[in-house]
Amino acid sequence: MPSERAPVSLKIAAGAGLLFLHLPILLIFIYAFTTEDKSYQWPPPGLTLKWFAVTWGRPDVWAALRLSLQVAAISTAVALVLGTLCAAAVSRAHFFGRETVSLLVILPIALPGVVTGIALRSAFHIAEIPFSFWTIVLGHATFCVVVVYNNAVARFRRTSGSLIEASMDLGADSFQTLRHVILPNIATALLAGGMLAFALSFDEVIVTTFTAGQQQTLPIWMLEELVRPRQRPVTNVVAMVVVLVTLLPILGAYYLTRGTDAVAGQGK
Amino acid sequence: MSAVTFDDVSRHFGAVRAVDAVSLSIAEGEFFAMLGPSGSGKTTCLRLIAGFERPSAGQIRLFGAPVQDQPPYRRPVNTVFQDYALFPHLNVRDNVAYGLMIAGQAKTDRHRDADAALEMVRLTGYGDRKPSALSGGQRQRVALARALVMKPRVLLLDEPLGALDLKLREQMQDELKSLQRQLGITFIFVTHDQSEALSMADRVAVFNAGQIAQTGTPEDIYFRPETAFVADFVGSSNILPARLVHRFTGRDCPAALRPEALRIVDTGPLLARVTAMSFLGTATRVVLDADSIRLTALLPKDAPRPHIGETVTLDWDASDLHLMAGA
Amino acid sequence: MRALSDTLWRRPRLTIALLLAPPLIWLGVVYLGALAALLVQSFFSIDHFTGQINRTFTLATYAELFRASNFDIILRTVVMAALVTLASAVIAFPIAYYAARYARGRWKALFYLGVMMPLWSSYLVKVYSWKLILAREGILTWGAAKLHLTWLLDGWLALPVVGGNSLSVSATGTFIVFVYVWLPYMILPVQAALERVPPSMLEASGDLGAKPFQTLRHVLLPLAMPGVVAGSIFTFSLTLGDYIIPGIIGSSRRFIGQAVYEQQGVAGNTPLAAAFAMVPILIMAAYLWAAKKKGAFDAL
Q1: pLDDT, averaged across chain A
Q2: Taking CB atoms and an 8 Å cutoff, what residues of chain C touch A104?
Q3: Residue B74 and residue C6: Cβ atoms within 8 Å?
Q4: What residue in C sits closest to A196 (Cα-Cα)?
Q5: Which residues in C lie closer than 8 A to residue A196 (C-beta atoms)?
Q6: pLDDT tens readout for residues A40-71
Q7: Low-confidence ranges of chain B (pLDDT < 70)
Q8: Which CATH fold would you assign to the domain A57-257?
Q9: Least enclosed by CB within 10 Å: which of A243, B50, B209, C163?
Q10: Could you give the residue ranges of the DSSP H alpha helices within chain C?
Q11: C67-299: which CATH number, 3.30.310.260, 3.30.2130.10, 3.40.50.360, 1.10.3720.10?
C-alpha cells in the first residue's frame, strides 16, 4: 500500500504526546526512593529503601488500604449483578425505553462526580441515613455498574442470538441455557468488567468525600496528604503502590478482551 | 397423521404482518420446502414451528397436539440454523452431545452417540476440534449431526445451504435428500433458491408477503403456477397479460408460458421483434418484444437462429399456455 | 425450575421486567432519587441569620448565582473547561491519527495500552505527580535552569491571572493538570472516528491534487470532528465538576466544584451548593443536546 510511512512531524507529535502521558507517572517511582523528606526537591539528593519499611509499619495506611479493598470488592460484586442484568435485558429485546435505560446507566459517570456526590449526600441527609461503610458502597456501586454494563453489552452483541435458540431447541430450559451457554460465553467479558470496576472503585475519591463520613479509604488518605502534606515520603510510596495495584486489573482486562471487543474504557 | 399443522396462524410484529393467516399441513415423512423471497414470512413460519416465535393468532399442532404454549425445549423438533449456531466454547463432540447432556445422558454414552452422529455426516475424527477450526461445510455437518442426534420427529433447516459455494451446495443437496429417505423423518427447509426447492422437496409452499401463494409438488409449481407471482418467482416464465390471452383463448385472465414452449415458426398467432440473444451451450436464449411485452424463448441448439432486430412469428401448444387466477 | 422457565418463555415481557427490576430500582430510586433531592434543595434558601434552611420554594438561591463573586466562578470554570478541551483536542489528534492510520499489530496494542494505562491510573496519583513536577524545587524549575530558560518561567509567573508564586499555585498549573488528566478521554473517541476513515479516501484527496495540509484541513479534520465532540463531552464535563485539581494545584480563585464543596460543607449552605451543582448539569444538558444533533454519539 502506498504512503504507509508516517511523516516525521506526526511521529514526533504522537511520541511527545505519549511521553507527556507517561513521564509524570514514572516520576512517582523515582520519588518513592528519595532521601529528601521535607520538600519535593529534584533531583533527589540520594536514594533509599527506608520509606518502604516506614510505610509498611503504618497502621493508618493499612486500615485505609483494607477499607478500600473491601469497598471495591463489594461494589464490584453489586455492579456485576446489576450491570449484567441490565445488559441482558437491553441486548435481549427491543423494548420501549431501551435508550433511556442505557442513558440511566451512563448518567452517574457522565455527570461530574461532584454532582453525584452532593446528590447522594443530600439524599442520605433527607432520608436520615448515617454515613457508614455502606453509604460508600452505595455510591461506588452506582457508578461501577456502567463499566460492567459496557463490557457485557459488547459481548452480548457479539454472541449470536441463535446460540440461545439453539440451546433451547436442543432441550435446555432458560436456566440450563444460562448455565451452559450464556455464562461460559460472557465469562471473560464479565471478568474484565469486574476488574475495571474494581480499579475504578479502588481509586475513587470525589464521590467518596461526600459519602464517607469519618472513614478513610486509601484515596481519601492520599487526598489529606495532598492538601496538608505531613509525611511526603510515605505518600510517595503509597502513590507508587497504588499505581502498581491499579495497573494489574487494567492489564488483566486488556488481555481478557484482546482481539474481541475494546475494553469499554470511555466514561471511566 | 400430519406432522405439522397450521390453522390460520398469524405473527405480527407491530404493524408488520410477517405471517398472515397461514394454514398448511405437512405430512409425516415428507420433505417439505418453504420457498419465497426474503421477508415473505417463510423463516418466521419455521421459527413458529420451532417455538422461537409465538403466533399472534391461530393454532399450531405437531402430530395433532397444540404446541403454541410449549417452549422450544418441549417440542419434538430440532433445528439446523442458518448461521449454524455452534457453541464456540465447546468442541465438536460436546456440541453434538449438548442435547444429550441436557437430557441427562451419561458422559460415555453421549460421547458414543455423538461420535456415531459425526460418522453419519462423515466427520469421524473431528470431535476434538473447536468449531472455529472447521470450514463452512464442516460446520454445517456438525449442526446437522447436533440436531439429528436428538432423533427429532421433524427436522427444521433454515437456509441450510445458503452459505456454501455452488459445488458444495449440490453435493449437500444429494446428501440431505438421501439422509431424509434413510431416516424417514419429516424435513422442513426454508430457502429462497427455487432450483434448490424444486430439486429436493416432495412438496413446496411458495410464500409471498406473509401468505402462501401456492402449495404443491415441484411439477405443479413449475408447470402449473396459480398466480403470476409464482410463475415469475419460480421460473423465468413469460407472463401474458389478460388482453393478450383474451385474443387467443377468449378467457379474460393472465397466463404463464414457459420459455422452452415458445417456437419460432413461419406462420403463427404472435409477431415479435428479437432484441437480444445469448448462447447457453445446449440452447439459445432469445429475448423478444411483442407489442411492448417482453418475452423469453429458449430455442434448442439445432433450431435456426434469428437475427437481432428481425421480426419473427411465434407459436406454442395450447396445452403449454397455463391460465392463472387474476394477477 | 422447568415450570418457571415455561412461564418466562410464555411471558417475555415479564422476563425483561424481572431482568431490569434490580438495576432500575437501584439506579432509578437511589440515583435519580438523589438527583431529585438535589434539584429540590436548589429551590430552598438559607436564612443567613440563623443558618437554618428555609424549606419553601424560591428562586432566590438561583439569583445568588448571578452575584458578581459567584458568577465569576461560573465564568472562570467554563473558560477553563473550554481551554482544556481545545488543548486536549490539539494534543490528542496526532496520537489518535498515528494510532488509527499507521500503527499496526504490536504497535497498535502498545498505543492502545499507552492510552488506556494513563486513563485508568489513579486520578490522585496523577495529580500528585504534577505537584511534584510543578513545585518550586521540582523538576520543571530544575529543567528550566539547565536549559537557561529560567527567565521565561519567571516572566510567565510574573504575568497577572495566569502566573503566581510557582506553577503549582498558578492557573497555568491548574490548566496543565486538567489537560493531562483528561487527555486520554479525548484520544480514544478521536481515534475511533479516524479508524473509520478509509485510507483510500485520503489518497483520493491527494490524487485530486490536495497538498497534505489541504487534505488535513478539508478531509481529515471534518471527519475527526464527531470524535472531538464526543471526547469534549468528557473533557468539558469533567473539568466543570472537578474540585480537587484546582484545590491542590492552583491559585485561590475558585471553580464551580470547589464552590459546591465549600457551600455544602464549611458554609452549610446546601441550597446554594445544590444550585451551583445544577450549573454543570444544565451546561452539559445543552452541550449533549447540541452534540447529539451533530451525531457525536456514534463515535462513542
Answers
A1: 85
A2: 24, 27-28, 31-32
A3: yes
A4: C120
A5: 120
A6: 888 888 888 888 888 888 898 899 999 999 99
A7: 236, 326-327
A8: MetI-like fold (1.10.3720)
A9: B209
A10: 2-10, 12-24, 33-42, 60-65, 68-101, 105-120, 123-134, 139-146, 150-158, 171-195, 199-207, 212-215, 221-241, 244-248, 256-264, 270-293
A11: 1.10.3720.10
